[in-house]
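[Solved] Which block belongs to which protein?

Original post:
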Amino acid sequence: MNAGCAECGEEGGVSLKACKSCMQVKYCNAECQRNHWPKHKKQCKQRAAELRDEALFKDPPPKEDCPICFLPMPVKLICCVSLPPATISSVPINDFANANEALKCKDMELYYSCCGKSICQGCLYSHHVSGDNNKCPFCNSNAGKTDEESVEEMMRRVEANDAGAMFAMGDNYYHGHLGLQQDHTKAMELYTRSSDLGFSVAHNELGGIYYQMGDMKKAKFHFEAAAMAGHEGARFNVGNFEGKLGNMERAVKHMSIAASAGSYHAMHTLQALFEDGVVSRESIDSTLKAYNNSCVEMRSVARDACIRTYQ
């Protein structure tokens, strides 16, 4: 980065402001920045894209743990299923998760507005088996609330800037749950507030909604934001975007990251690409190992027992 203003050469030291997109040049004021833009535009966009890719392909943060069993929380229950090996004998699959219609859209976690905790389905299953269904499995508060009481409790957490509560309330408005009138406008506002606080599930939900609306630019933005926050389902969606655009190298890279985090759909896609000769032997072996390790880390007796109730 040059020491002085990229337009007039003024050396203003700390008073110079860097270009926020590329961080490669500095300006003494907004006028100099506007005047320099025609000369800087190409370099700026190229560097901004490089910085975006660096952030996008960086190792995602670890999954959040269930606050009860302290095991990593996968996005969907499907991630924890283990079924027979794949048909390609040369691929060393041990606990390769197989698609199950009853599980592929079933969320692993449930949000409790009383304590603001998201509990895994395995711990919820154990809690129900114990016969104590009327209490929150984490804080032990009364769970038998009316719809009106639940909404009031959740709104208190929304007002306290709880991103999980914002998403949950958005979901209630979007689908008309808890006695609320279906209101997509309110739902989108709450989803957006939640995503602004970095809640990956909200980003992924917005990505799906914008995708259905045909706004691919916004859909990709939110899917990428969720992926960078560690949402393996969103990472798979980004890989799909790149694949449809013909950017197979980028698509495989995204799918590999998603599969390594335990995404069955990404692993299944990579397996198909391996059969088609798109993915190398070395790459599929490495990703399969990471995928299997991730599945093992997320499994427990309670989670497996819960999953069997859906089969």
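(Second protein starts here: sequence line, then its structure tokens.)
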Amino acid sequence: MKTKPKFLHYGTRRELLLITLALPSFIGVMVFFLIPFAMSLHMAVIDNPIGRNFVGLEHFARTFDNAAFQLGFRNTLRFMLFSVPFNMALALLIATLLQSTNNIIKNILSVCFLLPLVIPSGSMVHFWRSIFGFNGVINGLFFAYYPVNLLNTDHAMFVVAFIFIWKNIGFNIVLYLSGLSLIPKEYYEFASVEGAGKLAQFWHITFMYLVPTTFTVFFMSIILSFRAFREIFLLTGAHPHFSIYTLQHYMNNMFAALNYQRLASASYILTACIVLVVIAVFYIQRRVLRYD
């Protein structure tokens, strides 16, 4: 008696179930992200949506030569170079101090540092405007007779970086705490017996074992730095002080002006920069951790 072939084994059925569950998310990503991003390439290489004449890389060249784009690129790079390393260093310092406390205090303070992540941007922006704005607390305390709008001066970049660090430092602290919890305490005890000081223990044990976590924190900080535009826009509007005019401002203004060709070209340039940064981070990570 012949038996019917089993076309679907357990592994195949399980794979089909997983694919079916992931299909709605995949369709959403395709429809709202990948397909529009691919279609924008067509907009970047034509003269306008009506004529649709192929112009090649003309819009990319004009975008690079645009003074507003160059200003936004420089400011975005300045913001990242200042806020990301400072955020990482401060998060590592706070995480190291919290690690030496008892678990109750550590958990309470960790939750407190994470609270800015769940505060709505509108409420947060209103709070910081009441601190740094023209009628804010800073002016009332230090510049009562000659009030200045700190968000409209050369110091605006430091104000925005401070707000960025305040909001995102808790996430980095939690990542560093998870990395610190994986370091065996016996290493510190052995190093103390051998006569190593606190600084030597931190460099040769703590920092060395936190290298994978540091790369993760760095990667996430880069991503979060590109999302700081929301707070900057809510604080200062579409045309802020020139010191905090970012690439996202340029693209937002191109969208408002219905200049989709410049918007598409700028978005591809920004994407290329992000991809290069990610590739460099993973390459350095492989070299440092000796995965090759």
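Accepted answer:
You had them paired correctly. Confirming on the second one: The chain has one domain: 66-289.
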